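Please check this.
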Amino acid sequence: MSEFFSLLKHGNKPSLMAGFINLILGIIKGVAYFFTGNVAMFAEMMHSLGDAANQFFVFVGSALSKKAPTRKFPTGFGRVINLVCLFAVIIVGILAYETILEGFHHILNPTTSTGVWIVLSVLALGILLEGAVLLKACHEINTEVGVQAKGMTAFIKAIHNLGRAKPATKLVFMEDTVATLGNVLAFIAVLIAHYTPFVQIEGIVSMIIGAMMFIVVGTVFLENARGAIGETDEEMLNHIAYLVSDNEHVKDIRRLEVIKEGEALHVELMAEINPSVTVAFADDVRDDLMKLILAQKGVSRATIYFDEDDGVTNWSHIGERPESLKTEHANLTSK
């Protein structure tokens, strides 16, 4: 148990922060819905509670994924975060269905809700708090990929670098983008329903919020399913292929794999070297390559094998080196 609590210290902080905020908002929205009967508030209550459960699961999963390898699990527990995210989005999917169903019923049987200013106040609070979590997630993504940005630029750069973010941070970003937008749409819908006869707008917005939740479910499910199976990081593979090829003692690359293990990358390399070198010399070359590979962002484990050069080029699909990783490597080697 002490190990479990120790691991929790290393959990994904944005997901923990988002979990508490969404739980508080979910309770506040639930109370507001109880007193007003506002269907847009119901949609936002379900959304907030779903996000809270999701993000607490993700926080625990991201912490457990940091557990050190054991004899029984020698490759570590990195993919636990992918499995947890797969389970978490199922909860969001169920709540998304309920949200759409409630919105559909409201369109067929529209009712006028009361306490409009209570609803608007709660939604305004939701916009502020969800926006704060979203901004935190943006900064976390940019920090993870080594980019500095402030204000609206941080959001734009976070979208641009979303593919390189950690699974937990990416999930928080996507959920809170939808949550913030959902609060804004619900706020507008309540105003329209209050000042015009178009009360069905609340049901329509409820269905839109549910549909956005389903988009997050589909995107996160597919991405973490690939991660749970073991997906290649093509960008880092290409980058490491360049690094290895730059070593004058490496004649060819027989095999190179860069597999995502949750938030970490595991590298396996089989390189060809001159068969006339001594074992001690080959060991020095391996040490140099190991030090270089492990210094790359996100790489936590590497395995390197050598074989004698057969004079035949095996590795011929090196593409253009990513500019971001090229700059990162230049900064690293200059230190």
Notes: The CA atoms of residues 43 and 99 lie 5 Å apart. The first helix runs from residue 2 to 8. The chain has two domains: 2-229, 234-334.
